[in-house]
Design brief:
alpha/beta, Uracil-DNA Glycosylase, subunit E, 17% strand
Amino acid sequence: MVEMDERELLVGSLKGYLEELGESGVDELGFAELPASERGWHEVGNPLARLLFVMTGAGFAGAAGDLLAKIIQAMGFAGSEVLLLSFPGGHFGAASPAREALLARVAAVGPEVVVALGEQAAQLLLDSGAAIEKLRGRFHDLNGIALLPTLHPDALLENQALKRDVWSDMQQVMRRLAQPR
């Protein structure tokens, strides 16, 4: 079982991010409470990652989190090379503050590829009501960023046969990231 020490990963990512800010001339950071639309969100990993995973749920916690960590490792990435953004599930409309906050966060990271894990993440990012079965398996454009919807790790725990589909999706991601920018 792959275990990711979230604290070490977060501290390492934060340290790198703060060093980059310092090198760019930023010497002071303000603090503001998160808006209600972002409460309960969790971010783990590299804030400047080329690969961003977005999902509902508890991130790397629990069996689904362990499975996601294994998938990332099988893709050839360390946890410190990717960013995982997780948020509580719920119904979000197109003009919801949660969608706007998520799109702003994706833009701030500026990844080459976003993987939407599960129907809720895919629908929120794509402003779509389509089922994950209709969305997954191909790249979509998210404001100039390649977005690949796939199944949530919880779905894989419920039905082991779905792992092949998700692995096929991850192979597409690996090929896309292997291409020159």
